[in-house]
Design brief:
Helix content is about 25%, strand content about 35%. The chain has helices spanning about 1-20, 40-45, 100-110, 155-160, and strands at about 25, 30, 35, 60-70, 70-75, 80-85, 90, 115, 125-130, 135-145, 145-155. It is globular, with a radius of gyration of 18 Å. The chain starts with a helix and ends in a 7-residue tail after the last helix.
C-alpha cells in the first residue's frame, strides 16, 4: 500500500507532461530547446529527443534547415536567424498557434500588433507582426481567410524577409 501511494503521486505529477508531449513552445527567439543564434548542428542535437529529425545539410551564407515536417530554420552563415512553422503543435506562451483566428490573435495582443496586407497575396491574406519591446526579436503571423497559417519568429530583421534572406 505504501508503494502504490507513491506511484499515484508520481502519475499525478507526470500526467500534465504526457498530455503536452506533442506541443512545443514557440517564442520570439526559440522553438522548444532550439534558440536563434544556434548552429544547425546544435539545433539537430537539441531536437533529437523530440522525435525523428533530419540531419542538417547546409552551406555557408543563406540556407535553410528543415529538421521535420512543418518546421524550418533560416540560417545565415550556419546560425539560426529565423524559425518558421506551419504546424499547430507549436504554441506561444500566450496560447497562439497555427489555425487560430485573427480575432483571437488581436484579442491576445491588441494594439501591439502591426497588421498589414500581405506583400504578394490578395486581400484575404494578412501579415501581422509582433515586436519585442526593444525590437530586436519579433514574430510574424501569416493569416489567410481569417486564420493563422504560418508563424515566423527570430531576429527582427529576418522576419521581414519574403524571399529567402532578402
Amino acid at each position: 500500500m505504501k508503494h502504490s501511494g507513491w506511484l499515484l503521486v508520481m502519475v499525478l505529477l507526470l500526467a500534465p507532461g504526457f498530455a503536452l508531449a506533442s506541443e512545443v513552445w514557440l517564442t520570439m527567439n526559440s522553438y522548444g530547446p532550439v534558440k536563434i543564434g544556434m548552429t544547425a548542428d546544435e539545433a539537430y542535437t537539441s531536437l533529437r529527443p523530440l522525435g525523428q529529425v533530419q540531419e542538417p545539410d547546409v552551406s555557408a551564407g543563406c540556407d535553410y534547415y528543415d529538421p521535420m515536417a512543418g518546421l524550418s530554420f533560416m540560417l545565415d552563415n550556419n546560425r539560426i536567424v529565423r524559425i518558421e512553422t506551419n504546424s499547430n503543435e507549436a504554441v506561444t506562451p500566450s496560447g497562439i498557434r497555427v489555425g487560430d483566428s485573427i480575432s483571437k490573435l488581436k484579442k491576445t495582443f491588441g494594439n501591439r500588433l502591426d497588421d498589414q496586407p500581405h506583400h504578394y497575396e490578395g486581400p484575404e491574406t494578412r501579415t501581422i507582426k509582433l515586436f519585442s519591446t526593444d525590437r530586436s526579436i519579433a514574430m510574424r503571423f501569416e493569416v489567410f481567410k481569417g486564420h493563422i497559417v504560418e508563424i515566423y519568429s527570430g531576429y527582427e530583421h529576418s522576419i521581414h524577409y519574403v524571399e529567402g534572406c532578402a
